[in-house]
Each structure stands twice: as structure tokens, then as C-alpha cells.
Amino acid sequence: MRSLQYRPSSFKQLLFSCGGAQTLARIHALIVISGALAGPHSPGRLIAAYARLGDVAAARAVFRTSSNPTISTWNALIVANSRLGSPADVLRLYRLLAARPGPACPDSSTFTLALRACAHLLDLEAGEEIKNRAADLGYRYDVFVCSSLLNLYAKCGKMDDAVKVFDEMPKRDVVSWTTMITGFAIGMYKRMRLEGMEGDGIAMVGLVQASAALGDVRMGRSVHGYMVRREINLDVLVETSLVDMYAKNGFLDTALFIFNRMPYKNVVSWSTLISGYAQNGLAGDALSMLIKMQDCGLEPDLVALVSFVEEGRYWFDRMVREYRIKPGEKHYACIVDLLARAGHVDKAHELIKSMVIEPGIALHAFLMEDKSHPHYEKIAEMLQKLGFEMRKMSYVPKTEFVFHDLEEDVM
């Protein structure tokens, strides 16, 4: 560490890769001793590191040591409380920030997190207050803020207000559309119940899926309870939908309990639970379930594999954008491998073309050696285009990597 002379970039990389409480405590001590904690980004990165380990008390302690926290530091603590399921604390922190004089001012991330907390608490009044403050600061048409506001209105049954926000959005993404569709679906279910109609298994599956998409675990639990009371047949489709709903909302113990009680599990059931673990940052548990799935004689489908791809892309993007670590060839090779194995050959090729460094032999070798890939012909076509570039870089192709149906003079 002394050889690095306590450079901020060194601490940034250490915090990003830290996976244990004792190691993090040592890094924290080094940051304090070196004086780097006074930097504008160090407190936020420390808070994020403690939050990843689930130690919100330590994250709060770091925040309290910051004499003049920046908005990134505030957001780091708000994110920590949000991920650990403390929406009331998220709102409390937002109000402290909003009332505090100084340069730190709520931004798009702050408003988005605060509105999500309101949606979780069904606190429409607080949501309206946050919406007005966001508009005052120029975030009225921010796509992330608007999407969170749509979610709040949908959960509170205010679909007329949701439609107004939706119509005013200059840009709508998939999340916005999904929120509106699921909000209307739940509204129709409530109307059906008021008219005395009973729902069947198919309707219940749709409602559970809508609850999962909207992040409305209360509605999902209500539907689950309704099915149990009415003794609606919980077949594999219904049970898998319940696993998905609970897993997406962070209730993994409940999701696992339902999964373990299922008399029959298909590939979709396994993939749903694996995806739930991956989406909640539990890559180890996801991998463990993948191994158990294979032990049962089932091969993972695209959903299960994409879960690992998304987890890998999440950390790759976070490494570049948040921690500003310059990716090397090995980083790119790992992501290219993940994308291609999940069938996203085009995306893998786009990533190679977007590299800020020259592609090395490892990436070219990966594309050449993958003879068993389902997109073999497409890869072969791409290789013809890469051949000239390899020759320019003075690469000598290794014969064990050459496709059997390509002439060597192509290289």
C-alpha cells in the first residue's frame, strides 16, 4: 500500500473489490490515516462498500464523520437504506437533505429513491411534496423521476394522475409502459372484486405478475392469501409466479419456501429463483441453485444464463462509471464471454468495437475457438472482417483456434 502512496484511485479499486468486513475495516483505517477521507468521493464510496456488506450502521457512522457531505455522499447513504429495506429512513434522509442549507441539493437519483420509498409506504402526501420539489429544481420531466412517480400513483390507485404524468413525459421507456399496464390490471382486479366476481387461476397469475412488475408486494400477498382462502389450485404456473413476485421484491426466504414446497418444478421455476437471487446481488446463491438445477437433470435456459450476464454487466458498468476503473482486456474478455454464451453475439461484437483499448489476442481467440456456439456461422462471418485487423496488428493465428471450414489465407 505504501508503494501506491495512498492514491485515491488505489482506495477506489480496493473498496470496489472488497468482500469482507475485516478487510473493509483495514481499508477504512488506511483511508483515515492517509487523509483521503476528506476527499469529495471517499465517504460515498466507503458508505457504498459498507452497504454492500449489509452494515448500514457503519455506513451511517461514515456519513456522520463527513463535515460537508456532497450529494453523492447523501445519495450513497440513501441507496444503502433503500437496498436494506428501510423506506422510512430514506424519507427521513431526504427531508434532512431538502431542509439543509448548502451546496448539496437533491438530484434525479435522490428524487427517484425518495419517490420509491413513498410508493413502498403508500405515502401519497409525501410523494406530492417530493414531486413539487423535483419540478422546482428542473426534474419535472426526468424519465427516472417520472417513472417513480407513476409507480407511486399506480400503487395508490391514482391511475388518473398516473395517466396525466405519463402523457406529459417527453420520453417513455419500457418501465413507464409496464407500470401503466400493471397499474390498470390491478385496478381492474379491484373493480372485479367490488362487483362480486371471483377470479380463476389464470387471472390470479396475471395479478401476481402485475404485482411483481409494479413492486407491490402488499397486493401480491393479498392475491396469494385470496388464492389460499379460496383453495384455488396452485399449479406450477401459479407457484412460479409467486416465487417471481416474492424474489423480485427481496423476500427470498419466502420465495425459497414456496419453491421448496412445489411438488413439480420445471426449468422456468428454477430459472425464476436463480434470476431472483442474481437480481438481489446474491450471485453465490444463484450459482448454487444453478448447480442444483443441473444435478436434477435440467439444463439452464436463457433466463437463467441472462441473470448472470446482467449481474456481470451491472458490475462492469459500475466499475467504469462509479469507480472510474479503466477496464483491461481481461475485463472485456469476461463480459464478451458472458454475452456470447447467452446468445448475445451481436452485443459481444459491439462491445469489442467500443473498447477504449486495442483488442488483444484473448478476445480474437475467444471468437475463434467457440466452435460449439449456436451462432457459429455469424461468428465465422465476423472473423473474416477481423482477419485484416489481426494482420495489421501482426498477430499470427494459432492453428488450434482456426475454424475447420475457413482457409488459413483468410487470415
Automatic annotation (TrEMBL):
<dbReference type="Pfam" id="PF01535">
    <property type="entry name" value="PPR"/>
</dbReference>
<dbReference type="InterPro" id="IPR011990">
    <property type="entry name" value="TPR-like_helical_dom_sf"/>
</dbReference>
<keyword id="KW-0677">Repeat</keyword>
<dbReference type="Pfam" id="PF13041">
    <property type="entry name" value="PPR_2"/>
</dbReference>
<dbReference type="GO" id="GO:0099402">
    <property type="term" value="P:plant organ development"/>
</dbReference>
<protein>
    <submittedName>
        <fullName>Putative pentatricopeptide repeat-containing protein, mitochondrial</fullName>
    </submittedName>
</protein>
<dbReference type="GO" id="GO:0003723">
    <property type="term" value="F:RNA binding"/>
</dbReference>
<dbReference type="InterPro" id="IPR046960">
    <property type="entry name" value="PPR_At4g14850-like_plant"/>
</dbReference>
<keyword id="KW-0809">Transit peptide</keyword>
<dbReference type="GO" id="GO:0009451">
    <property type="term" value="P:RNA modification"/>
</dbReference>
<feature type="repeat" description="PPR">
    <location>
        <begin position="266"/>
        <end position="300"/>
    </location>
</feature>
<dbReference type="InterPro" id="IPR002885">
    <property type="entry name" value="PPR_rpt"/>
</dbReference>
<feature type="repeat" description="PPR">
    <location>
        <begin position="142"/>
        <end position="176"/>
    </location>
</feature>
